[in-house]
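Note to self: user wants both folds in one dump. Writing first protein now.
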Amino acid sequence: MREKLTRLFVAAAVAEAGSWLALLAGMAVKYGPPANEIGVKIFGPIHGGLFIAYVALVLVVARLHRWRPLPVLGALVCAVPPFATLFFERWARRRGMLRSAPEPARPLTRVG
């Protein structure tokens, strides 16, 4: 279950960033020369749903992986600026915060 939720978190981070791109394109069309709101009407709710899913998965995955409060806060803050969820996900992966299972303990070796 832990691995599945971690994969869902990664997918939500990517999808949330992609929905930002679509929403920004919709806003460009809305406020640009075409002045058409259809992009915002379509991608606004999609982005909102993915935003909520990302926030919920941050809280679940943080608990499963026993993240400290500061990275949890960082992940939540990264939900606000466009594309920041991608940077947080990569940062967390590089630091081993998204490992699917804890690394096995090393066997004790005797010296001498």
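First done. Writing the second protein, which came from a different request thread.
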Amino acid sequence: MTVSNEVSDLRAIYPDGVIAAGCPSRTVLDHVTSKWGLLVLVSLTEGPLRWSELRRRADGVSEKMLAQTLRTLETDGFVHREAFPVIPPRVEYSLTTMGEELAGHLVPLLGWVAARAEGIVARTR
């Protein structure tokens, strides 16, 4: 599909070309494309991870932000939280089917950004 076809598809959903402030898609976009949301979702593409593993992969995230991000993504239905009945407690996070579908769109975006980031950042210096 070409970009112009995708734009036409978006025009069918948003006839004015504007995503209204109260539109649910803005809320979902905010959750998915937030700095930590994107990193958590992409990190989970390799399989289930424990809290500490996620924290290492999303280098720089605070405990509070990681907890908030995971809670939001779980509520949205993108992430599954599984607590195992063992001592000490063990919890793993994984992508749901919908989360895997979403990550399939985010991984190419992140690859594009990674391939061009150095040149883009150099332009701003």
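Dump finished. Worth passing along: The radius of gyration is 17 Å.
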